[in-house]
Design a protein that fits this description.
The protein is an alpha/beta fold and 521 residues long. The protein is built from 13 helices and 17 strands. The strands form four sheets. Strands 8-9-12-13-14-15-16-17 form an eight-stranded parallel β-barrel, surrounded by four helices. Strands 4-3-6-7 form a four-stranded antiparallel sheet, with no helix packed on it. Strands 1-2-5 form a three-stranded antiparallel sheet, covered by helices on one side. Helix 10 packs parallel to helix 12. The protein is globular, with a radius of gyration of 24 Å. It starts with 12 loop residues before the first helix and ends in an 11-residue tail after the last helix.
């Protein structure tokens, strides 16, 4: 999302437990060398917390404290006690959907010392929320090829994703769309929410339409100024009205509860049972670019990442607990080993810190949505490689050096809980036609070739179907159609992007065999 005005667009148990201990990070100094939580897993209707190590307790008991994401033990609820011993195991009811639900809780073993409970272990969340899902929708993983569709009625009625041969689309959901309190009551975790459904019915129509065309839908969830105040991070309040989107609120109890309910509500609604199907949820837009797209004035990188990761965890658990097959992504822009003054963190720095935070509290299967535009947004040549070497010190990650991103994700510390490389969805990418329609068309062909030759890429979403006036004013005519709907050369070349003749034409425009510029992964 590159234009800068405010958009109005349209979170085998034993085997797992044993392997988990090796990946548990060091604890706070006070708790180090004591008890280690190795796994927190849903088993049937219970949550089983497995530990290793031992320490003394004045009352001879280990106390399991369940805290919200915004709390630190011993703050929370003492939900279970067992005799203090090496390898103790706790079992507590999950109670999904009830007031005493454990789904979003963070567990810590505490001991009685000097008349008060004190932490004696690391803290960990449930890492398999999908185990309690009522649905595992059949994913529409057909191909990587996608487009950001034009949503204006006169354009949307043309159903051009199908004409282009696309099987993926992305849509953006500002949380103001479920704010208003006039929807059907939704009961969750002992509270009743009235999420707005009037506007969502139009959204449902689009989902069903694209699903019927054979398109997998990814939804980007963002916090706009009009969202319910409980959705908006308190760290965002000083900038309301001055930025595009804001941080999710996992700071207050009301915010945590609202996020969990909203994630559950949306994931449950969009499982293909009448309202349409969403296979992928992207939590925030270019969140490392905090000033424009995820505004939170946290004062430090550490606090910023912690706040976002806490919100992501809640959204992840809420989504996966309703649709076990849904994928959940964080999102970065094309900044890599550098951060502009207006950016809070580089993409690499953000992912490194985010990964560390998530792993420290229970690894989950998060993925990455990336926007690997050219280093200079107005550069129409995808193959130029300017400021984008094949190096982890690259200033930018573009399609030319997309391997830099997937190589980082291939390192051992970034692997998913199953040991797999986390997939990357190129969820937004475009090249301006103002430098010539042939160059734009050739760049799209090359970028698509890069995506197809990287096994860790699960989607290539071209942005956009038609030009947007605000972007064109900045020199960014990204559409493969003009604003009036007339088709540019890029339209027909994207239609036939897999055709060797199209690749040959694109190579001729580039002045080099584009196959020689591919770095397979």
């Amino acid at each position: 999302m590159k234009f800068l005005h405010k958009l109005a667009s349209v979170a085998l148990a034993l085997t797992l437990a044993v392997s988990a201990f090796a990946a548990v990070p060091s604890m706070d100094a006070e708790a180090a060398g004591a008890v280690t939580i190795g796994s927190v897993l849903i088993q049937g209707s219970d949550v089983v917390i497995a530990t290793a190590g031992s320490t003394s307790s004045d009352d001879g008991l280990y106390h399991l404290v369940a805290s919200d994401v915004n709390q630190t033990a011993p703050t929370g609820t003492d939900v279970a006690q067992v005799a203090a011993s090496a390898g103790a195991t706790f079992t507590v009811p999950l109670n999904k959907g009830a007031a005493d639900s454990m789904l979003f809780k963070k567990f810590t073993v505490c001991v009685m010392s000097g008349g008060a409970l004190k932490p004696a272990s690391n803290s960990m969340f449930i890492t398999n929320p999908e185990a309690c899902a009522t649905v595992s929708a059949n994913r529409m993983d057909i191909s990587k090829k996608g487009v950001l569709p034009a949503l204006e009625t006169w354009m949307a009625s043309k159903n051009q994703p199908r004409d282009l041969g696309c099987s993926q689309v992305t849509l953006t959901l500002p949380l103001s769309w479920i704010t208003g309190g006039s929807g059907v009551p939704y009961n969750y975790n002992g509270k009743t929410y009235n999420f707005e459904t009037a506007r969502l019915s139009g959204y449902d129509f689009s989902l069903r339409k694209y699903n019927a065309q054979g398109c997998q839908v990814s939804v980007i969830i963002v916090v706009d100024q009009g969202a319910d105040g409980n959705f908006i991070s308190p760290y965002s309040y000083d900038g309301l009205g001055a930025h595009n989107y804001y941080g999710l609120n996992a700071t207050t109890t009301e915010g945590v509860e609202m996020l969990g309910a909203a994630a559950s509500f949306l994931a449950n609604r969009w499982t293909g049972r009448g309202f349409g199907q969403v296979d992928n949820f992207i939590i925030g837009n270019e969140v490392n670019a905090y000033w424009m797209w995820n505004y939170m004035n946290c004062g430090s990188n550490e606090v910023f990442v912690n706040e976002y990761a806490n919100a992501f965890r809640v959204m992840y658990n809420g989504i996966k607990s309703e649709n076990a097959s849904a994928n959940v992504y964080t999102c970065i822009d094309h900044q890599w080993a550098r951060a502009e003054a207006s950016y809070y963190m580089s993409g690499k720095g953000f992912l490194t810190s985010f990964n560390s935070k998530i792993r420290s509290e229970g690894n989950i299967d998060w993925r990455v949505a990336a926007h690997p535009y050219s280093a200079t947004l107005t550069d129409p040549c995808a193959w130029s490689g300017a400021n984008a070497p094949h190096s982890q010190s690259a200033a930018y990650v573009t399609m030319y050096n997309l391997d830099v991103l997937t190589d980082l994700l291939s390192t051992s510390e970034f692997l998913s809980p199953s040991g797999a490389v986390r997939t990357v969805k190129v969820s937004e990418l475009g090249y301006t036609s103002l430098g010539g329609e042939e160059i734009q068309a050739a760049s799209i062909v090359y970028a698509y070739m890069v995506a197809m030759n990287n096994s860790h890429v699960d989607g290539f979403i071209l942005s956009r179907e038609s030009d947007h006036a605000d972007e064109v004013a900045q020199g960014l005519a990204y559409g493969i159609c003009n604003a009036d709907g007339s088709k540019k050369l890029a339209y027909s070349w994207y239609q036939s992007v897999d055709n060797p003749n199209t690749i040959a034409q694109a190579s001729a425009v580039a002045g080099v065999d584009l196959n020689t510029l591919i770095t397979p992964r």
